[in-house]
Amino acid sequence: MEQDIGLCFKKIFQIMEKNMNKKLEKIDLTNSQASILIYLYKNKDVVNQRDIEKKFDLTNPTVNGILNRLENKDFIKRTVSLKDARNKEIYLTEKSISLMKEMKKEARQLEKELVAGISKEELNTFQDVLKKIFNNLQGGIK
């Protein structure tokens, strides 16, 4: 069983991402794009590209590509920072703010499907184990 844990995580992630992408398809978003929009919505401070790279552990070209697509679809706008002209600040547009309710609804629905049939006690134990696994793995990445 120990050898199957990594594969199981991978399959769960792939299924979750596929399901979320299917739900978000109707509003012309991917799971990655929606995650960044939700992060921008929740974050009350000014956000720049480096903040997103750190938060999601993504490379500069990957984040730049996602932001370009979001900007082309009119979900975000980028402006030059008044503090540092080398940085661009990222803001949500009215279009993305108006879709936030639907995105949150889809995320809550997926979460319900994810934990269906699992008791609170089982879920708490599972979350504790996941935290330990995360800490074990993170300790090895330096």
Q: How would you describe the overall organization of this protein?
A:
With about 140 residues, this protein is mainly alpha-helical. It has a single domain (about 1-140), classed as Winged helix-like DNA-binding domain superfamily/Winged helix DNA-binding domain (Arc Repressor Mutant, subunit A), CATH 1.10.10. The protein is built from six helices and three strands; from the N terminus they run H-H-E-H-H-E-E-H-H. The protein has helices at about 5-25, 30-40, 50-55, 60-70, 95-115, 120-140, and strands spanning about 45-50, 75-80, 90. Strands 1-3-2 form a three-stranded antiparallel sheet. Helix 1 (about 5-25) packs across helix 5 (about 95-115), helix 2 (about 30-40) packs across helix 5 (about 95-115) and helix 3 crosses helix 4. The longest helix has 22 residues, at about 95-115.
Q: Can you lay out the helices and strands and say which pair or pack?
A:
Layout: H1 5-24, H2 31-42, E1 47-48, H3 49-56, H4 60-72, E2 76-80, E3 88-92, H5 94-115, H6 120-140
Antiparallel strand pairs: 1-3, 2-3
Helix pairs in contact: 1-5, 2-5, 3-4
